[in-house]
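Q: Please design a sequence for this.
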């Protein structure tokens, strides 16, 4: 069955199309009785406005694009929830795309969203994104873009982040305060800024507290889709190479859970023999045994904040005004549990 049109409603009521349109939009110059007749008939005929026609008329799509490295991930799933909750309140549809940590795919997805004429884009960069010319191309089309979590210093745009250095420093200091002298670090890939900052926070905390920084105690976990396995593998290497390590700061909770699994398999007691701190406060962190001490990363609030900033910029451009970019930093906190005693 074809969709009901304004013209059909107008013919049934012996009114003009303009009157029917104004009645549905609640114009003040249309009488109450007329509005009721129009709305009652529209409801009975299951009339739906032609969103494409409206969008062409207003030059808006009422859609925003979201590009994230991984959807099945506690942190990013919370970010999605935050973005969608805010978008729905403003009448926006969110197109969610997964880059799989691939710069090549990320570039194609940016092009796809521009072709879909989205009103704005929210993105967390892929691990191997170094050159950002495809991001600069978004601004050339007068489309606002907000970065979150994995961002680039090279791009001048609004960003929603945490202080990864400060959070990593706090995590490492917590291990030092618990008596650890030889602290390893399972870090993320080499390129992402948040991975670099967490490594720098770890290193600075050691040096500030008179402990030696030993590069051989740093292990790389670069594949997000193998986080648990890499946690196990690096824990095994750590025990083979440095049995004297008594603390580990780990880049994400899923990697940390993999490490805890390997420690248990090898009879290493946590926290008696080695203490562990993770990062993100994944829901599993509180239910595993021993429960994981971790840094709480506010994913839901980050998503809400990212959309709110994007909406401000969409409205700013609609008014013909220049954008004012913001660097919004959200607070983190350390959640102490059983893996640090």
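A: Design:
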């Amino acid at each position: 069955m074809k969709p009901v049109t304004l013209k059909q409603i107008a013919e049934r009521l012996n009114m003009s199309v303009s009157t029917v349109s104004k009645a549905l939009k609640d114009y003040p110059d249309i009488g109450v009785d007329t509005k009721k007749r129009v709305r009652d008939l529209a409801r009975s005929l299951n009339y739906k406005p032609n969103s494409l026609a409206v969008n062409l008329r207003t030059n808006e799509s009422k859609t925003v694009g979201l590009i994230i490295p991984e959807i099945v991930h506690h942190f990013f799933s919370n970010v999605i929830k935050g973005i969608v909750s805010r978008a729905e309140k403003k009448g926006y549809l969110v197109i969610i795309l997964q880059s799989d940590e691939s710069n090549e795919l990320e570039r194609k997805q940016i092009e796809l969203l521009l072709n879909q004429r989205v009103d704005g884009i929210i993105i967390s960069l892929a691990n191997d994104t170094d050159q950002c010319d495809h991001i600069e191309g978004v601004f050339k089309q007068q489309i606002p873009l907000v970065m979150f979590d994995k961002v680039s210093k090279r791009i001048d745009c609004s960003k929603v982040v945490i202080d990864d250095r400060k959070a990593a420093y706090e995590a490492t200091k917590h291990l030092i305060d618990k008596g650890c002298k030889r602290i390893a670090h399972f870090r993320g890939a080499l390129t992402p800024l948040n991975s670099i900052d967490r490594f720098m926070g770890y290193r600075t905390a050691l040096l500030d507290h008179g402990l030696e920084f030993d590069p051989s105690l740093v292990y790389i976990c670069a594949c997000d889709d193998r986080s648990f396995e890499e946690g196990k593998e690096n824990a095994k290497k750590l025990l083979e190479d440095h049995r004297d390590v008594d603390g580990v700061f780990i880049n994400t909770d899923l990697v940390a859970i993999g490490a805890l699994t390997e420690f248990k398999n090898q009879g290493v007691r946590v926290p008696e023999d080695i203490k562990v701190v993770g990062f993100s406060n994944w829901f599993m962190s509180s239910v595993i045994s021993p429960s994981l001490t971790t840094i709480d990363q506010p994913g839901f609030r980050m998503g809400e904040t990212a959309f709110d900033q994007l909406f401000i910029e969409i409205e700013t451009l609609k008014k013909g005004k220049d954008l004012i970019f913001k660097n919004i930093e959200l607070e983190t906190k350390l959640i102490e549990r059983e893996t640090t005693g």
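Q: Thanks. Anything notable?
A: The chain has three domains: 6-49, 61-161+299-331, 164-297+335-340. The CA atoms of residues 184 and 248 lie 5 Å apart.
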